[in-house]
Design goal:
Length: 322
């Protein structure tokens, strides 16, 4: 019998060979949950739990008898009841650095494709129409204003990638000082200013009760009619019904969305039929390099905790009094 039991609640990778080999070095066994109905039972006696999209609520966490770590195999931890973990003195961790460049590049790619109306022109050419006027109006990026919602590691990279296009950058983040933003070449503004002045808005904030539906009907009405919104963060930060209405009414120019309310796309969703919107299937994080980093860093944090240390990124440090 192995010394440690590690449970992965919903594996998304083609195999778990790397994970099993790494864990075997400390005599830890990896259990893959294949039936969501058994998550509670499998996690009950786990020493560490790895989650991706599975919801790990208080009902599951309170049933854990000896768990030391619940780690999100990704960046956002909105799938984990952090408060419940803290009450049980369970560490909560994530992998915040594995796809920084990928997400930033994806956001800029969506911005460029929207600005130059690449998909629309591609579509018309393939329909046999060779006419640039089908894309009118198209504006230069020079001196356009990019508004970043959140100013963590990823939006800082987005800012750097936008510099060669001659854009100016403003940002809203209540947790980053004006001095820090100024040092990065960004103007700190309030949310009202960002909404009203940005030519492009790129969302990079976590999903919290405060950010859910942050962009609603009121926000879209206050945006420039020529403005685009880009979301590579979490779907519910944008009220989906409101953005559909805003796009149909011409209140904004278009959108680039890597996330929707749900990953189970509805083919009847009006967003799928609009020419001024680009939708990708939560793909911003992906590269062959980022996958390996994601897998390796997750297990490294698990091993660290099982050997009596801390994970690389401890989310509830303050709650645990560490």
């Amino acid at each position: 019998m192995s010394k440690f039991k590690v449970v992965t609640t919903d594996n998304i990778f083609p195999d778990l060979i790397m994970e099993r080999e790494m864990l075997s070095e400390i005599d830890a066994e990896l259990i893959e949950v294949k039936n969501p109905q058994t998550i509670n039972d499998e996690c009950k006696d786990a020493d560490a739990v790895i989650g991706t999209y599975a919801q790990l609520g208080a009902d599951i966490i309170n049933n854990m008898q000896k768990c030391k770590l619940v780690i999100r195999n990704g960046i956002g931890v909105n799938t984990i009841d952090v408060d419940a973990c803290s009450k049980k003195e369970i560490m909560v961790a994530n992998i915040p650095t594995y796809c920084l460049d990928e997400v930033a590049t994806h956001a800029i790619t969506l911005l460029l494709a929207l600005a130059r109306k690449v998909l629309l022109l591609n579509k018309t050419v393939k329909e046999g129409i060779w006419d640039v006027k089908k894309a009118i109006p198209v504006y230069s990026l020079q001196k356009k204003k990019l508004g970043l919602v959140g100013f963590g590691k990823i939006p800082r990279l987005v800012k750097e990638k936008s510099v060669p296009f001659g854009m100016s950058v403003i940002a809203y983040d209540p947790y980053v000082t004006e001095e820090a933003m100024k040092g990065a070449g960004v103007e700190k503004v309030d949310m009202d200013c960002l909404i009203e002045e940005s030519d492009f808005i790129s969302i990079h904030c976590p999903l919290t009760p405060e950010t859910k539906n942050l962009f609603d009907a009121d926000a879209f009405k206050r945006m420039k009619k020529s403005a685009y919104i880009i979301n590579t963060s979490r779907g519910p930060v944008i009220n989906e019904l409101d953005i559909i209405d805003a796009l149909e009414q011409g209140e904004i120019a278009g959108a680039g969305l890597d996330v929707l309310i749900s990953d189970d796309v509805d083919i009847n969703n009006p967003l799928l039929k609009m020419d001024n919107i680009i939708i990708t299937p939560h793909a911003a994080w992906y590269s062959e390099e980022s996958i390996e980093m994601r897998r390796r860093q997750t297990i490294e944090s698990v091993i660290s905790v099982l050997l009596g240390k801390e994970p690389a990124s401890l989310i509830n440090r303050k709650q645990l009094g560490r």
